[in-house]
Amino acid sequence: DVSEPNSINLDICGVYIAHKLIKKIKNQSNEVGNSYLVTLEDPEDFIIAEEFTYRDAFGHRTPLMRHVYRPLGLGLTRALIGTKISPNMVTSTSLIIIPIATSLIAIGGYASAIIAVLMLQVFLILDVTDGYLARLTKNRSNFGYWYDTILDQIHDISIAISFSIGAVNATQNSGYFIPGSIWIIGFTA
Fold first, then answer.
1. Which of 177, 79, 179 shows the shortest CA–CA distance to 129?
2. Cα 102 to Cα 83: distance, rounded to the nearest angstrom
């Protein structure tokens, strides 16, 4: 309402308004924090904006993904923008983490488990970062999408295998391969 002294009149044609900003406006907040407006310059920008909206939408994945991994991944992405590091390089770093972390899980032991958990947290942050980096730098490719998807499958199956081996090693009971096999079939199905 332009008759109000504190009102704002915005022309939002061709502008992507993040849902965080809309929420802050609805709550009549004076602090917009990390809310943002982005000018949409070409049709690809609309696709990127839609993907961000979908990924940031409430209920997409877990609260941990929403409140920990995504903010950390976005921060890392901002640090990487302008460098020569590509989204596929970030994905390749994740590929290096998987066999090391899963080997540590299979070996077992407290120290190995702590290191594996920390490495898997880094993996999850990098998994978010490569996608954000690809979208924000407009460096998306079919190969990159395929590579990230395959890497996620390798991660899931490797975790199931390593936990099965770790359980068998810890208990000397090969029966733990049965739930591990069911887990792997569930991932691949």
1. 79
2. 30
pTM: 0.69
Residue among 61, 184, 188, 56 nearest 132 (CA): 56
Looking at the DSSP bridge assignments, the partners of residue 38 are 16
Q: Which two tokens stand for residue 162?
A: 């390593």
Q: Which contiguous run of DSSP H or E holds residue 39?
A: strand 37-39
pLDDT tens digits for range 145-164: 899 989 988 998 999 999 99
Rounded CA-CA distance 27/11 in Å is 20
* CA pair distance 155, 90, nearest whole angstrom: 15
76: left (phi over 0), alpha (psi -120 to 50) or beta: alpha
Please say whether the beta carbons of 14 and 40 come within 8 A. yes
Specify whether the CB–CB gap between 138 and 42 falls below 8 A: no
Question: What gap in Å lies between CA 25 and CA 86, rounded to an integer?
Answer: 35
Show contacts of 85-89: CB within 8 Å, 24+ apart: 85/133, 86/133, 86/139, 87/130, 87/131, 87/133, 87/134, 87/137, 87/139, 87/140, 87/144, 88/130, 88/141, 88/143, 88/144, 88/147
Which pLDDT tens digit goes with each residue over 9-67? 545 554 545 555 556 556 665 555 554 555 566 666 666 666 665 555 544 567 788 77
User: Which H helix or E strand runs over 18?
Assistant: none
